[in-house]
Give the backbone structure.
Amino acid sequence: MRKRAGIILIHDGKLALMERHKQGRHYFAYPGGGVDDGETDEQAAVREAWEELGIRVEVVQKAAEILRTGRRDQVYFLVNWVDGEFGTGTGEEYEEVDEEHGTYNPLWMPLEEVMVKNVVPRQLAELTVRSHQAGWGESVVIHES
């Protein structure tokens, strides 16, 4: 099972997220995707930001690892926006829009809305809001069963 690598990008008090409509569900997910063979977690996160958002980012630090029983583990990196135009991603997720794959819509969500919207993974949303206010410390490990 491939690990998922994602980014946490906060710009002007807003969090970059992917709005998803998939199999009857509506939620907001952190940009990211599977780590390819021969690729580091960091490289995958940077690549996914380009594919999904159309922007180049640089990794600041590893922010969290989510270890999930029976499902693929996830790792998230706090990043800075280097260049590119937000919302111009051309990754494969934009090619197949159907009920199985769902829709992908990049957007900026004000941080004050993150805890009242359906942002997943939930514990990462909580960590993002708390750490943006209090400062980012060492990488956190979250266990999900």
User: Anything to note?
Assistant: The chain has one domain: 4-144. The chain is about 20% helix and 45% strand.
